[in-house]
Each structure stands twice: as structure tokens, then as C-alpha cells.
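Deviation from plan, reported transparently: iron/sulfur cluster complex.
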Amino acid sequence: MERIQETLDGFLNWLEREGKSVICYGASAMAEEALREDRLASRVQYFVDSDTEKQGELVRLADRRFPVHSPAQLRQEDFSRTVLLITSGWFRTIMEELDHWPELAEAPCAAYPQLLIACAPDSEEFFRRRILDECLREYESVLENRGEPEPAQKWELLAEKRAYIQGNGPQDRPLVIPRVMILPTTRCNLRCKGCSSLLPLFERPVDLPAGQLIRDLDLFFRGVDQCIRLTIGGEPFLYPELVELLAYLRAQDKILGVLLITNSTIQPGGSVLELLKDPKFYVEVSDYGHIRQMSRTVAALESAGVRFSVLADQVWDDMGGVEPRGRTAEQQREVYCLCEQSRLMKSIHNGAVYTCARSARMRALACGYSSERDYFVLNEGEAIECLREKIRGLYYMDAADACDRCDLGQLPARKIPAGVQLVGHWERSAYTLVKRDEYEALKAAGKKK
Ligand code: SF4
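Because the crystal trials were delayed, the predicted structure below was used instead.
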């Protein structure tokens, strides 16, 4: 096969210039992400996938339907007019295998993950894909979570936001960041296998004083023009000074939305619920199968008029342990560029700003990880321009040392069930808000509407 070495923009421009259509190999989550690109989706003829259950079916991806065939279909294809795009985490294995098919010797072929990695941090494409698009997606979620506005008004607001973030070009644009995470506590009442926050590894968990968190946020926001959404990680309802923190966040104009993620087993108190009623806040309730506690949490949120949703039947990506993997610099770059957290989960923790939440957690754990590029210490005396450059640096980097101790961006991803406990008896309820075996059917019916 003939490999296409391009960035995603370069690839899409080439498709248009040459008038090529596309066949995708792999009809799952990565395809969904790739097809968000309209210029690509409109050129896709069909998918091939080795999953026999998908073959012969129409799959729904990015709100369109595509036929799925067996990979053997590729042997019949005329590749003078089409190009093969691998949209699977197994792209290396697939390409190696197809290299042995003589019918595909001349076939032009690209792998979606490699198109993404090819983008340089000083390019406009990097800004557009990793900052602008992420900000707009976050902003759309913030608007939807608030339950407003009407669709026409939503597009208008998104267009306004796009124009604001783009500014007057690369030399003159505001520093708008898609999301940042704070970690007020390392305490948690659960001990989840594969916890992304590494909480079971903290032998002496601590709550950061709200005064310190607020001081860090004040220092950070001196250098940022707008943050579309802030996430409160850990188990926020265990944090004793949550009221002070929420009151501060509600008043901070540079933050447009605040997301709290709870394991659903701790009921928030009355003052917390009162603050959470503000449309700026949204709660995601993770359903790990503790149906009694979750029902109480859901009832408390519902009766207080808090905006929330329940995440049922989640599957996690296994991030692995904190030991070094011995990855080369190029492998670390690949892991970083393909990791969603590197775009969305920059983190502020205990007086420093980090390239991702995992980096912050590993430094707090004192597990032997340190880095000169992954984080910087917030400093009261720092000039604003200096601070902006440091923050910008964390959003415009393309590799991190932390990625030698984490598998989140590694392909193919390893999946694990969410919320399984390391210790103690754990029995997952057969019910979420409905009976679990009816849940998938209800979700599918909801999508068809
Ligand atoms: S360490 Fe790397 S792979 Fe892990 S979450 Fe951070 S950016 Fe992603």
C-alpha cells in the first residue's frame, strides 16, 4: 500500500483536489470521532470491519448511516478513485496485514491516528483542532446543560464564541482554554480498580484548604481570558469546604460552566444543593451499580432542581500503573497527542499547573515522577505575560514526560469495567434508573427519535 504522510487537513485538501472518495476500515468509536469532520464524512462510501456482527448492517456514525462489509470487499475495489482510511486503534496490525494483499499494492492508505499526530504545535491546524474545536464542543455542552437556548440561538452563540476565540489571528488572540480540572481532595469512599485519579494509591489522603485552592485559581486566572468549563474531580461531595469553593466558582466570570463528577454514593448537603441550583453548575452521576445510594443522590439533586445526568454502564480506558514504560520520545509524543486528557484535563493542584490530571496526581503521590516541562509552579510575583506564556505552553505542547507512566493515549486502548472495587464485597445492582438489560434498547430508541 502507498502510505499517505500528511496532517488531517493536508489529507482532506488532497482528497478534494484529487476528487477521491474514502473507504474506512473500522466502524467504532474512532470512526465516530473521524466523521465529525464533515469534509471527510461526505466522501465516505462504506466501511469494512472484521466484526462479523457489523457486516451486512448499516451503522449509524456521526448522525449518518453507512453500510459495513467484510474486509474481503477491499479486494474488489478500484483504488484509482478511492483511498483507504484506517479508523481503528489496531491500525498498525491492520496495515501490516493488508501490506500482504497483492490487490492492494497500489492502494493509497492513511491511518486516522497518524494524521492527527502529524500536526505541529505552532500550526493553525493545531490551534483549530486542539483549542478552538475543543472550546466550541465544551461551550455547546455548557449551553445544553443549562437547558438553553433554542437551536437557532445556540448556533448564533457558537458563531460568536468562535469569532472571539479566533481573535485577529495567531499574533492577536485571547487565551481561551477549553477545560481545566481541580482536585480538592484525594479522599474517596470507594476503591475503584483503574481509578483515573489514582485515589486508592494515596495512603494519607488530604483535603486542600479552600483558601489555598481559591488563591491558586486567582493566580491562574490572572493569565487566562476565559475558561469554557472547569471540572471538579475526585469525589467532590466528600470535600468539607465545597460550599466555599462553589460560591467562589459561581462568582468567577472567566469560567462559563462547572462540572462536578460524583460516584453517586455520597449525598450532598442542603447548602451545596442550594448553590448547585445555579445554571452554571452541572453534575454527572456515575452509576457503578450502588443503586440504593445512587437513588438517594438522584432524588436529592432532582428535588433541589439541580441539573444532572446519570452515566450508566460506563467502560473505562485502562491507564495502567505509575511505573515507567521505557517509551521513546516519539512514542511518548504519540501517546500524548492521541490522549483526550492532554487536550481537556489540564489541572491546577496544590500551587502548580499541570499538563494533565494524571501528571498532577503522580507528582502528589511522590512516585518518582518529575518533569521540567509537564508543570509549573504558580508564583504571586510573576508578570502576567510570563504567566500567560507558561499556560499557553501547556496547551500548545505535543509531548509530556508523564506519558511514559500512563497508557491512556496508547492504541489500541484496553477497556475495563467502571467502578469495580479493589477490596470488599461488590455486587452491581441489576438496575440503573431502569432495568439494565432494557437500558441499551431504551438508549438506542432514544437515538432514533
Ligand atoms: S499522562 Fe499522558 S496519556 Fe496519561 S492522561 Fe496524561 S496526557 Fe494522557
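Residues 31 and 436 are 27 Å apart (CA to CA). We consider this an acceptable substitute for the interim report.
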